[in-house]
Write a structure and sequence with these properties.
Blueprint: H1 23-26, H2 31-63, H3 70-95, H4 113-122, H5 124-158, H6 160-163, H7 166-171, E1 176-180, E2 185-188, H8 191-226, H9 231-282, H10 287-315, H11 318-323, H12 325-335, E3 340-345, H13 352-373, E4 378-385, E5 388-395, H14 408-417, E6 422-426, E7 433-440
Parallel strand pairs: 3-4
Antiparallel strand pairs: 1-2, 4-5, 5-7, 6-7
Helix pairs in contact: 2-3, 2-5, 2-8, 3-4, 3-5, 5-8, 9-10, 12-13, 13-14
Length: 444
């Protein structure tokens, strides 16, 4: 995952502006208040329908369990609950601005209705979705009534001076009646009483948004607790995705190695064999020409050996295995086209797998510095922070690196994420560029 922010520093999100009015005064007219109020109002009719469906289907399925028909009825209830949950998640994203994931789809072990029914009945998320339809109904009734009362009464009293004329003109009374019996009646009809009424309305109007937000926060808890993917399920999906990334990366590396062998060392060795064959034929009739061809073949052998060494270094460098990250990264930095300062501060060597990922991450980042940054200098810092291995590559180039644009940084971010790591890119248009990678620390 990548974020275009400077690592380790707090900042105000782009587009956020400072308001001159305090939050308490602007809350009644903020878009968030209207969204959450709309969510609470919609919850009442939707929860009535959901509750009626859930109770009816569960009661019907439980009553029919004495026969085989109860099992598919309960499975249908769970399937309907999953559909309702999907709609509720979409509503929560739109009105409550919740960042909520989608559960993994059902995966029956075999095609057919019976495996599908079995997977539904064994799905914990489906039962939680069904429970939401029952639990949410009483809360939705309470929350929608409270929100509607405070919101409508507050705004009605606040605007009372604007519509108070309705009572003397059409109702034959001075205003809202507070008290009345056979002998006495009290109306809000003089300027003082109208002003006090409006002041009470203002107080209720200022309080109502915070009541609405408190009620909506309970809805958020219900949605997150009963409709969001479970941590275990989300972790399984994440691991499956990471496994796919690892497999794809391994396949790409194998294709690269095969291509480098075929186009490089293998081709040179084929030419070398042909040259030595020609030299053998000329050895008796033209020793000088044969010696010259052998000398050229000797040069080809040296070139092929160098290509094989480079290929072996690309698979896993010997210096990394023998001497660790400090020496390996210093070797990489010495081959970079710009001066690179390397600072490795580790109390011990991490696990070989993490060490290898850290090495190749820095290698790719330094290649980007050489090819694209136009920098005059760069630095590599490696340190341990708690249970994380931190890598940071900085250059003073032109900037503008963007991992979301489908560049090599996107693939690097996926590789880092496959081992529960994080890649953070901070690269403003004018530079400098700072790319930080976090990897899990595992002891060798």
């Amino acid at each position: 995952m990548t974020t275009p922010t400077q690592y380790g520093q707090g900042y105000a999100p782009a587009g956020e502006r400072r308001h001159r009015l305090p939050a308490g005064l602007r809350a009644p007219v903020e878009a968030r208040t209207f969204r959450e109020f709309g969510y609470l109002l919609l919850s009442l009719p939707l929860s009535v329908v959901t509750f009626a469906y859930t109770v009816t289907m569960v009661a019907l399925g439980a009553g029919l369990l004495i026969t085989f028909l109860g099992v598919p009825v309960l499975a249908g209830a769970l399937a309907g609950a999953r559909g309702i949950a999907a709609a509720e998640r979409a509503r929560a994203r739109a009105l409550l601005r919740m960042d909520i994931g989608t559960p993994a789809p059902l995966r029956p072990r075999a095609p057919g209705p019976l495996p599908w029914i079995g997977s539904l009945l064994k799905s914990g998320e489906s039962w939680r979705n069904l429970l939401y339809g029952i639990v949410h109904f009483p809360w939705a009734v309470f929350a929608s009534v409270v929100a509607l009362v405070f919101w409508s009464v507050g705004w009605s009293l606040l605007t009372y001076p604007l519509w108070q004329w309705v009572f003397p003109m059409y109702a034959g009374q001075g205003g809202i009646q507070l008290y009345g019996d056979g002998a006495h009646s009290v109306y809000l009809d003089n300027p003082f009483e109208i002003g006090v009424t409006s002041a009470v309305g203002l107080l209720l109007t200022l309080v109502a948004p915070w009541i609405i937000r408190a009620l909506a926060s309970v809805d958020r808890l219900l949605v997150r607790g009963l409709l969001a993917p479970s941590r275990l399920g989300a972790r399984v999906v994440e691991l499956e995705s990471d496994r796919g990334v690892v497999v794809d990366t391994a396949a790409a590396d194998l294709r690269r190695i095969e291509r480098d062998l075929h186009d490089g060392a293998q081709a040179r060795l084929v030419n070398l064999a042909m040259d030595l064959g020609l030299a053998k034929e000329k050895l008796a009739e033209d020793p000088r020409a044969a010696a010259r061809m052998v000398d050229e073949a000797h040069g080809e052998v040296k070139t092929a050996l160098q290509e094989l060494r480079d290929l072996a270094r690309g698979i896993h460098p010997a210096v990394l295995t023998d001497r660790g990250l400090d020496a390996a990264l210093s070797s990489v930095a010495s081959r970079c086209t710009v001066p690179v300062k390397v600072d490795v501060d580790l109390p011990a060597r991490p696990a070989p797998a993490i060490e290898g990922i850290a090495y190749f991450t820095v290698c790719e980042l330094l290649q980007n510095v050489s090819k694209h940054s136009g920098a005059r200098s760069a630095s590599v810092d490696v340190w341990r922070a708690g249970d994380r291995l931190m890598l940071q590559v900085t250059d003073n180039g032109v900037g503008g690196a963007d991992a979301s644009a489908g560049s090599g940084l996107a693939g690097l971010a996926r590789r880092v994420d496959a081992v529960d790591g994080i890649l953070v890119v901070d690269s403003p248009a004018a530079g400098p560029t700072r790319i930080t990678a976090e990897l899990p620390w595992r002891q060798a």
